[in-house]
Write a structure and sequence with these properties.
With about 450 residues, the protein is mainly alpha-helical. It contains 23 helices and 6 strands. The chain folds into 3 domains: about 90 residues, no CATH class; about 100 residues, Roll (CBS-domain), CATH 3.10.580; about 180 residues, Tetracycline Repressor, domain 2 (Orthogonal Bundle), CATH 1.10.357.20. The relative contact order is 0.06. Belongs to the SLC41A transporter family.
């Protein structure tokens, strides 16, 4: 790793020197040998906008399109504004339509119109169509640059068609088969098409069982399907089953990353890094305050429970020694279970068919942890305070806490999801507060029942 960093640093210094000495030919040769992601990183490392623009001007349109696709929208706009219109047109036309739509979708309307006018009319129409879909839907994620062939031609004819249309497609992992109404009726892999007999009809060799998504489907559902079925692209259809686009795995990876980041932010009750500063501040308050109020009220109720428990605590002071341990362990187990459950809900692993199994599994985990940890803390209580009854109370309370925490940590997110409350935001504060209360009730009840044996 260190050696690679040193190599990158030397390369960056070389590029800086070549930029300052205006050695275009040598610099072009170096850039053409680099991966476009590395070129993008190099461009960002230059910092100086003049140097960045100069480096971009040396790239051919295809490489420039790949490099710009890795950069933030604001920087892309700044760099493109330094280029002549014909060069901007050439770069945008080398980008997949879905990437152009994503880029333009983040700009004000005036800026969008300015860039759309630089595209050819039919390309601009395709990009505009993609921009009209909700950005979090399959339509907003798809590209219209795909390979489709009619069902009534031979494999040999299909390969001829591919030679004509494949260069303009984003991917040719799969070839989609349509009927005369442009409805999706099958799919065939490129490998299957090549190895089959040239005279075979596509209708006879295509796969009629395939996975597709509606153009209005949420992007998270799309990501789960691609992950579940291990496919490299998924076709998108409208309500009449007309093929309107495809979603490739590289876009799905971006969605998975985006959704995971969003869940992490929500789990922390905070905001996305893409919002404005004022929006961040307001979002943080709105998302955290309700559940912190729940936690505060729960804390007050816990205090009330402890108040009812004061006689036992006065009689056996040692009971108080174990309260932080019991509440802390219960909170940890509950948070662990809720994290696993929230993630399972997000990925689709927890669904109506697996809910009962998931709850039972986590409950048994809680019982197992409770038996192990309860035995250990009971032994510590006995050795420390010399009271078997105290050890029994603390051990049984630990067992009850672990079982309750694991069960509630699983059940609460599932219930929140069912009633339309975001489990990533609401689960943790609700669970920790309720577990504290239940744990104290269990502990005080056991202590009351066995108080005479501890005196």
């Amino acid at each position: 790793m260190k050696q690679r960093r040193e190599q990158n640093e030397r390369l960056l210094n070389t590029i800086r020197d070549l930029i300052h000495s205006l050695e275009d030919k040598k610099l072009k040769e170096i850039l053409e040998e680099m991966h476009f992601v590395d070129v993008s990183d190099t461009l960002l490392s230059l910092k100086n906008e003049k140097d960045q623009s100069y480096l971009l001007s040396l790239l051919d349109n295809e490489l420039a399109a790949d490099v710009l696709n890795e950069l933030e929208t604001e920087l892309v706009v700044e760099l493109l504004e330094n280029l002549p219109h014909n060069r901007i047109s050439g770069i945008l036309e080398k980008m997949p339509f879905d990437d152009v739509a994503d880029f333009l979708g983040e700009l004000p309307e005036e800026e969008q119109d300015k860039f759309l006018k630089l595209l050819r009319a039919h390309d601009a129409a395709d990009v505009q169509e993609l921009m009209d879909y909700d950005e979090d839907s399959a339509g907003g994620l798809m590209t219209t640059e795909y390979v489709a062939i009619p069902e009534n031609i031979t494999a040999a004819k299909a390969i001829e068609v591919l030679r004509d249309i494949a260069p303009d497609a984003e991917t040719v992992y799969y070839v989609y088969v349509i009927n005369l109404k442009n409805q999706l009726v099958g799919v065939i892999s490129l490998r299957e098409l090549i190895v089959t007999s040239p005279d075979s009809l596509i209708l006879e060799i295509m796969r009629k069982k395939f996975i597709s998504v509606n153009v209005c489907e949420d992007q998270e559902v799309v990501a789960n399907l691609v992950s579940k079925y291990d496919i490299l692209a998924i076709p998108v259809v409208d309500d009449l089953n007309h093929l309107v686009g495809i979603i490739t795995v590289d876009d799905v990876i971006d969605v998975i990353h985006e959704e995971a980041t969003e869940d992490i932010y929500r789990l922390a009750g905070t905001y996305s890094g893409e919002e404005e500063v004022t929006a961040k501040y307001l979002t943080a308050i709105k998302s955290r305050l309700p559940w912190l109020l729940v936690t505060m009220l729960g804390g007050l109720f816990s205090g009330h429970v402890l108040g009812k428990f004061s006689d036992q605590l006065s009689a056996v002071v040692a009971l108080a020694f174990f309260i932080p341990l019991l509440t802390g362990m219960g909170g940890n187990v509950g948070t662990q279970s809720s994290t696993v459950t929230v993630r399972g809900i997000a990925t689709g692993q927890i669904n109506p068919n697996t809910v009962i199994k998931t709850i039972l599994r986590e409950s048994m985990v809680g019982v197992s942890l409770g038996l192990v940890l309860g035995s250990m803390v009971a032994l510590v209580a006995y050795v420390w305070q010399g009271s078997i009854a105290l050890g029994v109370v603390v051990g049984l309370a630990m067992l009850g806490n672990m079982f309750t925490a694991a069960t509630m940590g699983t059940l609460v997110p599932i219930i929140f999801k069912k009633v339309g409350v975001d489990p990533a935001v609401a689960s943790a504060p609700f669970i920790t507060t309720s577990i504290d209360i239940v744990g104290l009730i269990i502990y005080s009840t056991l202590a009351t029942l066995l108080l005479n044996y501890m005196l």
